[in-house]
Design a protein that fits this description.
52% of the residues lie in helices and 4% in strands. It has 204 residues and is mainly alpha-helical. The C terminus is likely disordered.
Length: 204
């Protein structure tokens, strides 16, 4: 099974036809997809101006999408190295109890669903690397907040039966991410949960 780098070389390989290079990019998302496979694909297509269902794609646009994905992957790999280094030091010091940051890292290990989104068509507009840096910085700061770590909005709605992990959580109505529960204040979480009650009451 080809790894991310080998697949990236195929995306850039001018001797391959466009559908083969498109398939290689899709397979890259099986190794690294910050929003989940479908949503990350939709995001990249939106960013470079191609249809998610188009087969004969301009190879230059595929390379642009790959470049954004690679930059985000570099951000994530750097973060994973910091986590590994920190955990080694903590274990030497006898600190064995995992923190909320460690729980988040464990659940996002491997680089898929790092910043899950409500739906494939509802995701942040910003560059993937920018989004990852914002979420990582917020998690490492360790201070619960009332606003979205990605877009700064304060309007969350608690959603259940989400299509991917987590199956429920506070969704930012502005950018569509499912914010890590550990990042939000109790007041922000309560407000998000109350929004579900209000919506159900209005629909009754």
């Amino acid at each position: 099974m080809a790894g991310f780098r080998a697949l990236a070389e195929q995306v850039r390989n001018p001797s391959l036809v466009a559908p083969q290079r498109r398939t290689a990019l899709r397979k890259c998302l099986e190794r690294f997809a910050p929003y989940g496979h479908r949503t990350t694909w939709h995001h990249l297509c939106h960013r470079v101006g191609i249809s998610p269902y188009e087969r004969e794609v301009d190879p230059d646009r595929l390379v642009l999408a790959l470049t954004e994905l690679e930059e985000a992957r570099d951000v994530w790999l750097s973060y994973e190295r910091r986590v590994a280094r920190r955990r080694r030091l903590e274990k030497r010091a006898g600190v064995r109890q995992p923190t909320a940051l460690d729980d988040w890292h464990r659940l996002t290990w491997g680089g898929c669903d790092i910043v899950p989104c409500e739906a494939p068509h509802h995701h942040p507009d910003a560059d993937l690397a920018v989004v990852l840096r914002r979420v990582i910085d917020a998690m490492e700061a360790g201070r619960p907040r009332a606003d979205c770590p990605v877009c700064g909005a304060t309007d969350f709605e608690w959603r259940t039966h989400l299509p991917r992990y987590p199956v429920s959580g506070p969704v930012c109505r502005d950018c569509g991410i499912v914010a890590p529960v550990a990042l939000l204040t109790p007041t922000a979480l309560l407000k998000a949960q109350r929004s579900v009650v209000h919506r159900e009451f209005a629909a009754a």
